[in-house]
Amino acid sequence: MNIVVCIKQVPDTTEIKIDPVKNTLIRDGVPSIMNPDDKGGLELALRMKDSYGANVTVITMGPPQAELILREAMAMGADRAILLTDRKFAGADTLATSYALAGAMKTMDYDLIIAGRQAIDGDTAQVGPEMAEHLDIPQVSYVVNAERLENGNLLVKKESEESVQTLEVEGKCVLTVLASAFNARYMTVSGIVEAYDKEVEIWGADKIEVDETKLGLKGSPTKVFKSFPKSLKAPGEVHEVSEEEAVELIVNKLKEKHII
Amino acid sequence: MDIKDYKNVFVFAEQRNGVIQPVAFELLGKARDLADALGEKVVALLLGYNVKEEAQRLIEMGADEVIVADCPELKDYITEQYSQAVYQIITEQKPTIVLYGATTIGRDLAPRIAARLNTGLTADCTQLEIADTEEGDKQFRMTRPAFGGNLMATIICPNNRPQMSTVRPGVMQKRQREEGRQGVVTMFAPKFDTARFKVKLINTEMKNTSKNDISEAKILVSGGRGVKNAEGFDKLQALADTLGGMVSSSRAMVDAGVVDHSIQVGQTGKTVRPELYLACGISGAIQHLAGMEESGYIIAINKDKYAPIFSAADLGIVGDLHKIVPMLNERIKKEIEK
After folding, report:
1. Residue B336, min C-alpha distance to chain A (Å)
2. Which end of chain B is less crowded, N or C, counting CB atoms within 10 A of the terminal residue's CB?
3. Would the CB atoms of A229 and B150 count as touching at under 8 Å?
């Protein structure tokens, strides 16, 4: 069984702060990490490898420094790593990104593609389903479990707001995975050593099956019109008072607002 | 593609077990504003099985027309079945805008449709507007949080149609229901390519969570790390009961296993806008603020006077919630008895 896992290097958004004076993002010193849902996806792939035997390939599209998360993935147990990097990919929105990834998949021999549900820097949850559409294979999103049946089909559990659904999938598919369902394993010491002996394959646009006019900024239907820091509302009143006074303050406000 | 051929604002009216989801009505409210600004129609898409009776409700909530696809294949949501039906309707009708709820269904369906149509999709929009450009055109602008809510980005989709967005439940406001409002109901029969149906629904297990949805609550008493444990949440529950509200939570208490994810507020939880949001022991990470800052009135109780929650609060109290909340509960009980 050949499994390809899509992973992304993202800034740790919980560490991003706003400069209170300039009202801009402070990105300096923010660590780059493997996107949490993608790490969950890698964990699912490695569990399937443990259970059924599988060849696990990790792929990422990004700048050269994204190689770091590919090494991390190999140290966790992935067998092969591919870095899709080319100036032609730059400025891609989700549609152009999913198109490039699908172009890479078309050159590969795979049975199953796993991706994270969404990346913490964009939170769109679009790349997995869009890639599945480009490949003309089904997708199951919000996946919390997957196992292989005797007939070769996959039995997949999907979480929604109010239920957990069990679905049977025939043939190749894309699963997008929730990090919360898969506690990812740590890198092993021997894995780390081996990860640096293994090669990370570098692929450009010429290596994949795509129409180059559909890549990057040119291939992106959406454009950023503007971006701006979130406007902070006028600060309210803050009181450091005794508990009795605090209770009076709150009760008076609730009466004033006709809440009680 | 001639973008001038594309007209009208479509809303995917999501239903589950025959019940139209509140987000569909919220989207109709926003779609009404957009369509009025464009001088065009609001059209709701209702897909399901034995659901056509619900169409009138969509008209009363702002739709001018409802296109209904009512057949057994659409009884339960499955990506490919729904994608084929929605794709066929869109290619035939050529809407300029299509809105979906950013639910597990909308966020699964919309990207599939976007790729099939080769068009743009903007996720989790918090603001949608029609703006006049310098060239005299009317442009659809979609604003959404990025970088975990640290930055806002306004997105346009200038050369592809339809322009599509998802919007999280609780973000837009539904209109007052207009009983007896007149509209057109059109039936649509999708032509399914069943060879592409590769996914079969085996079963659906309902989660054992509280039936009550925090995004519907008028008053939320919300707890964070400072609440510490289930006993702490009992104090919040008692106050919520007195106020006729519900209890919600920050991510910290969900991750700690103290409360269920269904009551989590924030970027990875729900977006809420109650009349009163009482934040107890919540520090106020930007991901949390993103889910509650549109609340009518925000009160924060926190021991740490530097907690960022105070910048979002209308009234901040530096103090110990474990003492203040029970006292407040007793005091409000007396107040209500008066």
Report:
1. 7
2. C
3. yes
The span from the CA of B326 to the CA of A239, in Å, is: 19
Binary contact (B317, A141; C-beta < 8 A): no
Q: Please tell me whether residues B250 and B133 are part of one structural domain.
A: no
Q: Which of A14, A173, A259 to mutate to test the interface with B (most CBs of B within 10 A)?
A: A259
SS (H, E, C) chain A: CEEEEECCEEECHHHCEECCCCCCEECCCCCEEECHHHHHHHHHHHHHHHHHCCEEEEEEECCHHHHHHHHHHHHHCCCEEEEECCHHHCCCCHHHHHHHHHHHHHCCCCCEEEEECCCCCCCCCCHHHHHHHHHCCCEEEEEEEEEECCCCCEEEEEECCCEEEEEEECCCEEEEECHHHCCCCCCCHHHHHHHHHCCEEEECHHHCCCCHHHCCCCCCCCEEEEEEECCCCCCCEEECCCHHHHHHHHHHHHHHCCCC
* Interface contact B150-A13, CB threshold 8 A: yes
Question: What ipTM was predicted for this assembly?
Answer: 0.91
- Contact call for B243 and A167, based on CB within 8 A: no
Residues B15 and B162 in one domain: yes
* Segment A223-247, tens digit of pLDDT: 999 988 876 667 789 999 999 999 9
Which of B118, B202, B298 is facing A168, going by the closest CB pair? Answer: B202
| Residue B248 belongs to domain spanning | 214-337
Please tell me the distance from the alpha carbon of residue A162 to that of residue A126, in angstroms, as a whole number: 22
Query: Are A93 and B120 inside 8 Å of each other by CB?
Result: yes
Q: Which residue of B has its CA nearest to A227?
A: B153
Q: Looking at A47-61, A68-82, A220-234, which range is the least confident one?
A: A220-234
Is B203 domain-assigned?
no
CA distance A131 to A48: 22
Domains of chain A, CATH where assigned: 2-214 (3.40.50.620)
Question: pLDDT tens digit string along A170-228?
Answer: 999 999 999 989 999 999 998 899 888 899 999 999 999 999 999 999 999 999 999 88
CATH of the domain at B290: 3.40.50.1220
- In this complex, do A139 and B336 lie within 8 Å of one another by their Cβ atoms? no
Mutate which: A98, A162, A233, A253, vs B, most B CBs within 10 A: A162
Q: Are residues B63 and B165 in the same domain?
A: yes
CATH number for the domain that contains residue B14: 3.40.50.620
Structure token digits, residue B89: 């309707």
Contacts of A250 in chain B (CB under 8 A): 299, 315, 317, 328
Cis, bond preceding B162 (omega within 30 deg of 0): yes
Do residue B151 and residue A255 have CB atoms under 8 angstroms apart?
A: no
- Residue to test with chain B: of A247, A251, A253, most B Cβ within 10 A: A247
Q: Is residue B221 located within the same domain as residue B102?
A: no
CA of A169, closest CA in chain B: separation in Å?
A: 5
Q: Letter for the amino acid at B191?
A: K
Partners of A233 on chain B (C-beta within 8 Å) are 293, 312
